[in-house]
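FAQ: What does a ligand-bound record look like?

Like this one, built around 4-O-methyl-beta-D-glucopyranuronic acid:
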Amino acid sequence: MLNHWDNPLGTIERGYAGSSLWKWYELPEVIDQRYIDYARANASIGINAVVLNNVNASARFLTKEYIVKVKALADVFRPYGIKVFLSLNFAAPKLLGGAKNSDPMAPEVRNWWKNVTKDIYSAIPDFGGYLVKANSEGEPGPQDFGRTHADGANMLAEAIAPYKGIVIWRAFVYAADPKGDRFKEAYKDFKPLDGTFASNVLVQVKNGPIDFQSREPFHPLFGAMPKTPLAMEFQLTQEYLGFSTNLVYEAPLFKECLESDTYSNGKGSTVAKIVDGSVDNHSLTAMAGVANTGSDRNWTGHLMSQANWYAFGRLAWNHSLSSEQIASEWIKMTLTQEPKAVTTIQDLMIKSREIYVDFTTPLGLHHVMGQNIHFGPEPWLEKSARPDWTAIYYHRADSVGLGFDRTAQGSNALGLYSKEVQALWGNPETCPLPYLLWFHHVSWNKKLSSGKTLWNEFASRYYEGVKSVEWMQKQWNSVQSSIDPQIFADVSGRLAAQHREALNWRDACVLYFQQYSKQPIPTQYQVPTRTLDEMKEIVRIYQLK
Ligand code: GCW
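The answer part, i.e. the structure of the complex:
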């Protein structure tokens, strides 16, 4: 399924491809041809469910006025095998219905949801169900009334069960605790609820424990809730992957998570097999992608990001496909059939994610992006509305070293995983480098498995990452004669923008962290020509309204 974070006024939260495809003010009378084209594209890759509106949800979608609009879209999508879902605002009974509050245990509230559900199903008999973000980032939820996530989900499940609808309840919750570790928050709330959700409820878990970073370990809830079907939530829109100026092919990221072994039920209990229901015998299963589509003529802003939409659909039905194969299918249908060009572009796509990791957050560094808009580097961010929205909360740089100690000596987030996974990541000597700073505070002089010290390896990644973007530009230039000229020029321009942004990341991060390592830039590289203050000013300006 696709989850659209589209708002009623046409904006898209974290959308980088124009505005919403849904023209709410024109519906239901006007049916835009793009609704049909969109449905065809989805159907071609097996996407059979669509949540139309943002999880930070407006209650207005539940009004009679809007239900007819939703119905119009459902009618367009039905011939393509696509069901429509809505995100709910949990406070709707109070906001719309005049109820005293929205306590899920209050009979008037329960009735309110039953009535709304009836209205929806009388207009849309095959309506899919509800997606809910509750008690997260300021959204209302059952905890506002001393109830649990299960109380809230089950109330909706009861209202929708007679119609065979489902409730998808998100696990993206994290209480603000300056002494805690955000990594552990969702687990703390949800793990104890395993076995208490109604049979038509799915709990939707983001691929990683923090928030769609360029690399995350798999979320510790996968494998920890055997009695509850867990849906996967990936993010296609590139909130933390350079918006629509960066070429980042996400199939390797999706597969890295899907193929991770949770060992929850012995070896081979991969995340993919938790999600497809085979490990714990669930027949209700789902995989969601936060959509990257918008009104841009090429749908996704960066044309190459279409491949992420495509790869998501392919992997949702067959996670054993290789990233290479999916890329090659997509290239041949979209860009060129010329064999040399196909392999060149495929290679560039396959390497693109690792390149992005290298020039932004190498070795397991995470959450050091610009605040609010989540663009560009801001590792110096010390203060925000919440401690876990800063950068220093995550990178923990000091004169000794870098990284978040999540071993038993630190936050012990590692303790949420099975002992086999703990063995894989728990020892700083053997922890794979891509995950190192996720779990360990490593001293600057520590010699890594690469043979370099942490500081030298870390700084080198930024420099090599920038060089790799230059390599991507070169590779792209070499296929010019096989590509439509407009597409060629557009992607070239975006690669040039990516190069400029990569230089910003590099200079900002090496100069900032150098204050702690107090060591020179490795001699083979040129010292940045810009100062740390200049980099701070560039990032500050990004954020001016
Ligand atoms: O990634 C964060 C985003 C929010 C988003 C939230 C969520 C829809 O920065 O914009 O809100 O996650 O997934 O709920």
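Follow-up question: can I read anything off the structure? Yes, for example: Residues 362-404+441-542 form a domain with the Alpha-d-glucuronidase, C-terminal Domain fold (CATH 3.90.1330.10).
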